[in-house]
Amino acid sequence: MKIYKSTRGLLVEQDENIHPLNVSFDDLVRSSDPFSLARTAFNSAGGAAPNANELLAPIGSQEVWAAGVTYFRSRSARMEESKDAGGGSFYDRVYSAVRPELFFKATARRVVDPGADVRIRSDAHWSVPEPELTLLIDPRGEIIGYTIGNDMSSRDIEGENPLYLPQAKVYDGSCGLGPCVLLSREPLPKSTAIQIQIGRGQTKVFDGTTTLAELKRDPAELASYLFRDNTFPDGAFLMTGTGIVPGDDFTLAHGDLIRITIDGIGTLENRVA
Fold first, then answer.
1. 9: left (phi > 0), else alpha (psi -120 to 50), else beta?
2. Each residue of 73-122: pLDDT tens digit?
3. DSSP count for the chain of H helices, then E strands
4. For residue 270, what is the enclosing H or E element?
């Protein structure tokens, strides 16, 4: 079952049928049984699927958090970008540690809608998108859904000093979510593919693929660490890290088109402002 947030309100899709759901996104996430609540939409008349211009980021009042160094490729990339600052081993230790790296990513107002523009920092010289499976977690700490996240990152700023991570990760237009939430009690299969393509004009300048089999940490474990000694009355989103990082010779440019696809969820498309 997929939940779309659109200019028409919440829409529920199941078996290619679209029905309106007359509650807010926050009400859905806070519900003791969001699956039953979503199914009430099928008591109403069906309608048309939302077009690209109608889609909004599927978020209400939730905070967006992120996990880092959860894939081996991410570990390697962080070590490469930090080697001149002497911080390479820092990320190796994070990768193998029991406790995961978790950091704050965005408030709802900083999240970019599907089809809208993400941004690169004006003071960054090496910027990349990070395609990530993103968890929707209810106030009780249970994973109730999945969406696609684009964790825009300034690699040169983080590489200069790991303590600069918030500046590298948190700024206006640094986070994209969508196009929908796949509402599901079940974990996604390990074979689930995550793909990214970056276009520049008529040329594809980067593409990459990974699967959840390469994710070192279990999503439920990441969610449990986020909720340790922390409360989220409206629930939270948690990006689970990236297994696809472009090479050191690549940086985003204004006008680039970023397309991230995750099996079973769909495609999130954003252009660089």
1. left
2. 555 555 565 555 555 567 778 888 889 999 999 999 999 999 999 999 99
3. 7, 18
4. strand 266-272
H or E element in which residue 106 lies: strand 101-106
- Distance CA(46)–CA(181), nearest Å, equals 19
Q: For residue 135, what is the DSSP state?
A: E
CA dist., res. 232 & res. 212, Å (int):
26
CA distance 262 to 270: 15
- The amino acid sitting at 63 is E
Selection from 7, 19, 13, 27 nearest residue 44 by Cα: 19
Query: Which of the 8 DSSP states describes residue 251?
Result: -
What is the homologous superfamily of the domain 56-188+213-249 according to CATH? Fumarylacetoacetase-like, C-terminal domain (3.90.850.10)
Put simply, whether the predicted model's pTM sits higher than 0.85 gets the answer yes
Give the separation between CA 45 and CA 23, rounded to whole angstroms: 16
